[in-house]
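Standup, Tuesday
Yesterday: got the pipeline producing structure tokens again.
Today: sanity-check two examples.
Blockers: none.

Example 1:
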Amino acid sequence: MHAMKNAFQTVALIGKYMNPEMREQILALARFLAERQIGIFIEEKTAEQSQIKGYTTVHINAIGAYADLAVVLGGDGTMLSVARSLVDYQIPLVGVNRGRFGFLTDITSESMCEAMSLILAGEYQTEQRILLSATVMRNGEPVHQGRALNDVVINKNGMARLIELEVHIDGQFVHRQRADGLILATPTGTTAYSLSAGGPILHPMLDAIALVPICPHTLSNRPIAISSHSKVEITVVQAPDVRMHLDGQMQFELQQGDRILVERAKKTVTLLHLLGHSHYDMLREKLNWG
């Protein structure tokens, strides 16, 4: 009788840095996987911060070459940075929630071993999430480029004055707005900062981008949703102190006259969920809907 083949042979474990409770969780999951003859890699910073020894460690950028599944233990912030690092490798991600909200990390730490055994048995569903690619053009030259799974945010830094932005979509002029800033959110990002700014919640399967003004001077300046295949160009018309944030984790100082080109990134991120996972159940739970 042959042992049943697992859906994944090698698994990388990535944990939230600087979190002392994380060590026991990672070790418990590593032991569980080892018992099932799964090859285990621990992301090197995770191993270092959690003082884990005895397992093969790999740099975050090398995980895609070694593992065929990555398990992310942490909150949505950890998942965002891991997703951006691994998107080019097309390696599926599973999220174990150790944060507060956990829109992306939907497996509880209490049920992680049980959930992993179902995933290894092939009992999971996949979901593709789009990213945005943002390029800053200055005097006709690209000066900065990055990707975001949640959102690209252009906002004022510390000054009380409003900033003025001009928006074109697919080469067509949309408006010139004076506001505290503008959020361009993927469907994933519509439950993050965009939601706080009054933006719509888009289902993750929608091929759309939400453009959400932050505290616009003209109250009729409303959020809009556009095709994710559109190309958006934002020009910084007037701004004494403005910057661009990607997923709230990376920032770049902008100057007057800069043009920010935002479009859908070529590759998507694959998230794995347990069978029966419902986006609406998750929204109801996280947002306390009745």
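Example 2:
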Amino acid sequence: MLSAVKSAVYTVYARRLTRELSRASLPRHVAMVMDGNRRWARQNGFHDAKVGHRYGAEHLDEVLVWCRELGIHHVTVFVASVDNLRKRDTDEVDNLMLMIEDVIAQRLSHPAGVWQVKTAGRVDILPDSTRHALKLAEEATRDRNSGFHLNVAVGYDGRDEIVNALRALLEAGSHAGRTLDDVAERLTADQIASHLYTSGQPDPDLVIRTSGEHRMSGFLLWQAAYSEFYFCDVHWPGFRKIDFLRALRSYAARRRRFGS
């Protein structure tokens, strides 16, 4: 009985938040740090971190449905950093890669899907099977014209991204026969942005991090320069729709200053 009452109250509250947001200015691009999978598993009595990664990967499907329903056309999710892949136990990393292959890449590639997938990160440090699965997901979704774009950040480091963008910019200038002085003199922020993983997409308006951590961990260092931030105490697998709607409500209530 109590569970039914809680469910009814949750449904009513979610509907009220959705009505409020129907009149609000919503972000075009939401970035999310999907943190807390392992802690969620421990809190729920699971002794294996693999369970948390499985629930976390599967939960992405649901969150993307919420974004689509609300008309949020650009989403970037932080799945794993370079440090995550290098410093965590081999078994845990192997399982995380399997979740990316079997859950994220495979489901996003389904013909009924709407999201156009792009990988953001050092694919060269990923296992061959993971790199192949993400490549297939990109190819399978490349021609989708729904307008919904998903960036999957895995093997990602924000400083590496900026360094690689500058390297690509210098290489392009060299191939065009331009001198280093000429490239430097004409260098603009837009030119650098055009070589980032999110090239052609708007910068994130809102960055959400779950699990209560109040840091960025090198996520979208360039793109998030003027983003609004929302830190949520719940772990990623337990991130509910009302938590997402509250984040959007908080964003809508803010007066964005863009550095001023």
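Quick observation on example 2: The longest helix spans residues 49-70. The first strand starts at residue 29 and ends at 33.
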